[in-house]
């Protein structure tokens, strides 16, 4: 059997469980007695250990078992969570994540580096401090009138009936026995073949096997039960503890009544049921059939609930991200082919053909929306990871800082989520190091001693806005200007507006830190942030109030693959404007604006850009031109074009290395005719409009100042 795909599932699920474990540990710091979260942490560790045992990853099993034992003592109330234990468990999670990553990269766990082994040994030593010698078995003796059928302490009996789909689900019954061998010793195994059909009716992919197992171990019941985590739902698993009373065996025999006295004989052969209790159990077996029949009357309702839960779980499947990317690419090609079909139908002037093409276009659009939805994930999972960052960094720099999250249910493309992690990390660290003041400074300013870093996300104009803000001291524009001048990033006497001054922190090599630390001072963080955001076709802007705090606002497209666009023409060239940024289209009143760079739009000044001049198109403009009014991030401007060619589903394709640095362009697409249309970078164009306006205002101010002098 090829286990590669199953191990891949184990790796993915373990990484999810470790993330859940980390989230619960960070939350429990504020509520150390929260039983629900304590159980969640224990279950995560327990499931990872059980799954690792199934695949023979003994090093993970051994290490996790020690951590699980400590967590079990926490559950029992013998140990209480505090800052030190939480920090230790976070380090345990980090080490497990490293082991899982080792597996994911195809390396064997037997070839771990010495540093990793040393870390594991140190963590195991720290965990052992929380483990006192286990008390002697204090299980009370059975009452005199209740026979004790078990031969000795530590003797467990496992009655296992696997589900018919166990093999199909990638589970091997023998793997469970191998894992049990890591918890104790298997004394005897009795196979149960009563459910095996005739040879002609046998399905080689179905499981008909049952096992009766005598097992000796000092492990607790939860550890043994955890071995069967993945087959409990569809099978019948009964675990009888050492020195279980005869009534427990009677209940087991009643459940297995269909197997007759053979079940009682198996219990005796396993040594779990004493010989002198055999006769009592056999007599009880006659009434067991009646009991089983009575219970069967209650089965439909219970079975319906179980089936409902199983059906709900079965609706969730894992899909490889590469397969989703391939689907999106195919949908993109389908859109291009559909556009070509629609164009040919319109040329044919056949009503039936046009109607069919319109129906096809509508279905393609629905397929596109459904395909894009598959890649949409909530950003909350990414935000929650920064709880750990804030906790660790605040301890490192000696500041009391808390992270507040809002808008975690905002969805965006998985590709964008994966690439936004590093920029957010830089911004959160900067907010803590540069933004939040030391406690004494906050006290003197009348602020709460605990600083706050906020992460917020919301949808706006077909995109997503992510805000990283703090309630710290804010940015000092004059200090930024002085530093920029000192580092040679600006020339002496150069004039800037407040916004432009703040944006200097995104220049390469710029930093306001007086000393270089592990967190900042080298002048590369904010430059990397802007570069990464720009690569995602996004923008980043700053708002800051001195003494009150700073907000970094990132605007990103919801998806990097397919958008709705407005197709426009200038000369013989075609361009696409993202439709969610288009406000309206109007005719250009050319007689009134000759030589001007703005027009009067219902009483408001609207600056505009002539795309013919921007792209140096030498063709003659038509007698009638149009203005496409666009808005982004609160800035509005007009694009002067020749033709409005209608709405168009745009498959965004990246520009090559030669053209990727061309301003005002963010990609290209292929039209239904096979021609290429360039996609305009609206945020970049609006930035140019703003810069030209600021330059013009600054020039006018300097001219007025010179005249006054």
Automatic annotation (TrEMBL):
Q: Where is the composition biased (Basic and acidic residues)?
A: 298-310
Q: What is the main EC category here?
A: transferase
* Phosphohistidine: residues carrying this PTM: 46
Q: Which CDD domains match?
A: CheA_reg, HATPase_CheA-like, HPT
Stretches with biased composition (Polar residues): 282-296
Is Nucleotide-binding among this UniProt entry's keywords?
A: yes
**Superkingdom per UniProt:** Bacteria
As one GO molecular function, the record gives: phosphorelay sensor kinase activity
Cellular component terms per the entry's GO annotation: cytoplasm
* CheW-like domain mapped to chain residues: 562-691
| GO BP, sorted A to Z | chemotaxis
Say what the protein does.
Answer: Involved in the transmission of sensory signals from the chemoreceptors to the flagellar motors. CheA is autophosphorylated; it can transfer its phosphate group to either CheB or CheY.
> What name does this protein carry?
Chemotaxis protein CheA
